[in-house]
Design goal:
By secondary structure, the protein is α/β, with parallel strands linked by helices. It is built from eight helices and 19 strands. Strand 1 and strand 2 form a beta hairpin. Helix 5 crosses helix 6.
């Protein structure tokens, strides 16, 4: 069951690390701090979008929660803890036949207590929605973050996320998406944390012709340890799922990607593919890619691949022969490698933030 454990009233000050993004260029956004919506700016295109504090949704037994009992069934200790201790989150309902062309940006801030966030996004049939989340803290804390999305028939969800958590934090992040007939779910997650991180993205293709992509970009440095698991489970025939991972490990850090493509028995003509690419910068850093295919059906397509290594010395030599320093040449190669991350950002301020963070963590 869902249970809400309320925080005490928090102050409404927005940290400098977030306020710099809240420009006119950003468009529509909501800022949630320690469980409270402290600032909201939505343009007229979002007038028909339904957004509730998760506390309100739970207390009123909202049908999006009560009618989807499977949301409580995931057998994961961190997930079950979240359901019992929620103190932050939103319910977002996208009405039927509505297409939202602009992106809604949500900023989740932890400041005064451990963050236990639960967000539910429901897309009704024939709707489209673009969602961007930014999870932030700069102190010592435990972060337990859960989001679920339900993508109904012929609906399309574009879900992108970025997190910036301090090295004093420990983070468990679980994102689940349930996709129905002709639905599409695209997850693009950028993890540039300094925290100890365990992140899972699970996408369940529930009905025929459902499709999805799960893309993760991650950078680790110092003594950091981070693991990213992506599961795409085919529970219907004629479904497609793609996993992409891009990573950079620096200093003494350890970065692990585990991608799982699972096609259950009877799910004929399904397609499960994944690729992993990584750069190892530090002499003592480690980057592991563990692609798994769990196939219980013959009439399917499935493949995986991984390319992990150091920066190509020939590339460095070529760039340096054109006048670049070793550091600038390395920076250019890494920026090109992580271009899928930069392309997710919707404003120049966010692009600048990414570039500065990548340079700090890799050079």
């Amino acid at each position: 069951m869902f249970k809400y454990i309320g925080n005490k009233e928090t102050n409404r000050d927005i940290p400098d690390g977030i306020s710099k993004f809240l420009t006119e260029e950003l468009g529509s956004y909501i800022v949630v701090k320690d469980g409270y919506i402290i600032e909201k700016k939505l343009d007229k295109t979002f007038d028909k979008l339904i957004v509730k504090n998760i506390k309100e949704a739970i207390s009123k037994n909202d049908s999006n929660i009560s009618e989807n009992k499977f949301l409580t069934s995931l057998e994961d200790d961190a997930y079950q803890y979240n359901l019992e201790e929620i103190n932050s989150g939103l319910l977002i309902n996208v009405p039927e036949n509505l297409v939202f062309c602009n992106t809604l940006h949500i900023f989740y801030i932890q400041e005064n207590s451990d963050l236990v966030n639960n967000t539910l996004i429901v897309l009704e049939p024939n709707s489209e929605f673009k969602y961007f989340e930014y999870i932030y803290n700069d102190g010592e804390a435990s972060i337990n973050y859960v989001s679920n999305s339900i993508v109904k028939e012929n609906a399309k969800l574009s879900y992108s996320g970025l997190s910036k958590l301090s090295e004093k934090s420990v983070a468990s992040v679980i994102r689940n998406s349930y996709v129905y007939r002709y639905g599409s779910s695209i997850y693009s997650i950028a993890e540039i944390n300094d925290s100890l991180t365990d992140s899972k993205t699970n996408i369940y293709l529930q009905e025929q012709y459902a499709s999805c992509t799960s893309k993760t970009i991650a950078i680790t440095n110092k003594e950091q340890s981070a693991k990213f698991t992506q599961l795409i489970e085919h529970n219907a025939p004629d479904t497609e799922g793609f996993i992409e991972n891009y990573g950079v490990a620096n200093n003494n850090s350890a970065l692990v990607f585990e991608g799982i493509g699972k096609i259950n028995k009877g799910m004929k003509r399904s397609n499960a593919k994944q690729q992993n690419r990584g750069i190892v910068l530090g002499a003592n850093s480690r980057l592991d890619a563990n692609p798994l295919l769990l196939i219980d059906e013959y009439d399917v397509e499935a493949s995986h691949g991984a390319a992990i290594g150091k920066i190509d010395e020939d590339q460095l030599y070529y760039l340096m022969s054109r006048g670049l320093t070793h550091k600038n040449a390395q920076r250019l190669i890494i920026s090109g490698f992580l271009s899928p991350l930069i392309s997710l950002m919707s404003t120049q301020e966010l692009v600048k933030e990414i570039i500065e963070t990548v340079e700090n963590k890799t050079l």
